[in-house]
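Consider one such protein record:
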Amino acid sequence: MRRQNVLAIFLLNLSISDIFFLLTMPLWINYYRHDHNWELGEISCSIAGFFYYSNMYISIYLLCCISVDRCLVVTYPLRSKTHRTSRYAWVQCILVYIVVAALHIMVLINDNLKDAHDDKNKNDRCYETYPMEEPVALFNLIRVGIGFLLPLLVLTVSYWKVLATVGQSPGLTAQTKRKVRLLSFGVIGIFSVCFAPYHILLLVRSLVFFQSDDISPQGTYCLFEQKMHFFFSCTLAMSSLNCVVDPVLYVLVSNGVQEEARLCWRRHKRTQTDTDCALTAYNRGKSNNNLI
């Protein structure tokens, strides 16, 4: 990665965030393995939750940084050249880390994890407090607005301008246009598959909470949460897939990685062809010997 490669700096920070999240995966695996029973204490739950949700929104905002950067490069290539420096990229990444971390530290301070005790099953849950409390529901609406709808608007406008400009530019080669399209659809695909289902259900759950008058254990709200729990857990798991698909972005934008992949594929095909030819020659020789 070259120091002046702004896009590579964004992707590097995306990878760093993913690594911190992956370090907490054994804790979450243990949690779900014991049927949503957190046996490791409140501090470890706070740390795991902090890295989980921080990674989600750091990834979302870094994807926004990538989309705006691509939009400026394609739409205003000369004007943006003076501002696109490594310092510019690092400042943006650090600001994203600070803002997201500060918001989630406030959540940790105000969140009472002791309330997440399941009296019925005699176990402790981690960030699964039922019924939802009003401050939590309000914060969820803010998360959906600032953490999903606003980035979705930024991504849509940025890549709409990128694709429109690239399509009308006669000076770009077909390979360059293809690379820009791949990056555009790759970012939008990651955002849609990983983050959209979770935030849609989060919005629905919060709106149902504000519309419900009865939050007793036998009330309509609790019955709704029971039905939605499995699906919401699935969308939460889908949001973790960004750690898996983020490296795809690096492949889409890195000519070096693409070339290495092509070379590996050619070597594999060549080796397979040579092996097939050797086996064919051996079988023919064996058949001729049998005829003699």
About this structure: The chain has two domains: 6-253, 254-286. The longest strand covers residues 117-118. The CA atoms of residues 4 and 86 lie 5 Å apart.
